[in-house]
Design a protein that fits this description.
The protein is 43% helix and 10% strand. It has 124 residues and is mainly alpha-helical.
């Protein structure tokens, strides 16, 4: 908590200098914080959506794992990128083949703020 020593001593102009300085600092800081906060908000939404996708994939995995051994279905995976679903013996399932193609991979992102002398500089 800041103490306004000038007001405590009853000296100075009589203006609330602490409040004036705080307002000036906030006015200087606010326009710079908004773009940074916008980027953080977007990142938070992206992370949240990825979490939802992961949850749905886990639900799908759990659901399909309960099918294993039922009606002649078996699941197998040779690596972490492919899952095979095979039918065994006589069952009421029809065989099918399907492939999913990845059309585009996510690109890494770099946030750059101009006006700094180096990547580790704290101010311009």
């Amino acid at each position: 908590m800041a103490v306004d020593y000038l007001s405590s001593l009853n000296v100075g102009s009589g203006l609330n200098t602490t409040q004036i300085v705080d307002s000036l600092i906030e006015a200087e800081k606010a326009p710079r914080e908004k773009p940074i906060q916008d980027v953080l908000d977007k990142a938070t939404v992206s992370i949240s959506e990825l979490g939802k996708l992961k949850k749905e994939i886990n639900v799908f995995k759990t659901t399909t794992s309960t099918l294993e051994g039922q009606t002649g279905i078996s699941l197998s995976s040779s690596d972490s990128t492919a899952i095979s679903l095979n039918t065994n013996g006589d069952s009421f399932t029809n065989e099918f083949s399907h492939q999913i193609a990845v059309s585009q991979l996510a690109a890494s992102q770099v946030i750059e703020f101009s006006g700094f002398s180096s990547s580790s500089a704290l101010s311009t």
